[in-house]
Design a protein that fits this description.
By secondary structure, the protein is mostly beta strands. The chain has a single domain, classed as Beta Barrel (Porin). Strands 1-2-3-4-5-6-7-8-10-11-12 form an 11-stranded mixed β-barrel. Strand 11 and strand 12 form a beta hairpin.
Length: about 250
């Protein structure tokens, strides 16, 4: 297809989709959150990868701990640029609203399908995710009903030489499951701009700014949209056990 052979056409198409979606939401909140994460990536071989990460999130203008969690993920590349994966998340949520307050324990699992490809310096990525989350220590009879969601993410990245900084623009859309099927409307959308750089023998540092819109939120029997801004930081270190390819001069 000639369309996808032209990088600027692909980039403009994705950017238009992301920018067109954002104005559809009325911003009824201006809370600022802070998200941070430290992650260890393990490349076992050319096909298999693992990761473990620790996350800490703040809300109320980055003054109150919202939650913290440990996440473990694994992925397998079934064909070039197409990876299937899954992960689990052990969450501690700070509930400081209402009569019953304290730290709640939640558990989440997810399954992903990731596709990515590069067009010169431009990288395109797509992800489909199913996730299931519930609170531990309670049964369905006690009111704990698992929250199932389908998520679709698309993004475009550009590597800026000679600084070796990668800039990314991503949009993600969430839909809740209703009666075992994906709902017909978007419940949440995220738009993220990030910059990252790898440092030799140190790891990768990423900074991002994100806008999250929660749609159809019920407040006093009416549905409203709630928006928040998020500042983020992430450090990633990679252990690579893949067999290096010997240069032709040594063969």
């Amino acid at each position: 297809m000639k369309l996808f052979k032209k990088p600027i056409t692909v980039v403009l198409t994705i950017v238009c989709v992301l920018m067109y979606s954002k104005p559809l939401v009325a911003q009824n909140s201006n809370d600022l959150e802070g998200w941070s994460a430290i992650q260890l990536d393990v490349r076992a071989n050319e096909k298999i990868a693992f990761s473990i990460s620790e996350h800490l999130r703040y809300r109320n203008d980055i003054t109150t701990v919202s939650n913290y969690f440990t996440q473990v993920e694994a992925g397998y590349e079934i064909v070039k640029d197409l990876e299937l994966g899954g992960g689990v998340r052990f969450i501690k949520k700070n509930d400081d609203v209402g009569k019953k307050q304290g730290i709640e324990s939640h558990f989440r699992y997810q399954f992903d399908a990731n596709f990515k490809h590069d067009i010169k310096r431009i990288g395109l990525s797509y992800r489909f995710r199913y996730q299931n989350k519930n609170e531990l220590g309670f049964s369905e009879d006690e009111g704990d009903i698992a929250k199932e969601q389908f998520r679709f993410l698309l993004g475009v990245g550009y590597k800026l030489y000679p600084l070796n900084i990668v800039f990314k623009l991503k949009g993600e859309f969430f839909s809740a499951f209703l009666n075992g099927a994906v709902g017909d409307k978007i419940d949440r959308q995220r738009f993220t701009f990030s910059a990252s750089r790898k440092f030799h023998r140190f790891g990768k540092i990423a900074l991002f700014y994100r806008i999250q819109n929660d749609l159809n939120v019920k407040v006093k029997k009416t549905e409203v949209s709630v928006s928040k801004s998020i500042l983020g930081f992430k450090y990633t270190y990679t252990l690579d056990f893949r067999t290096p390819i010997e240069p032709l001069s040594t063969l």
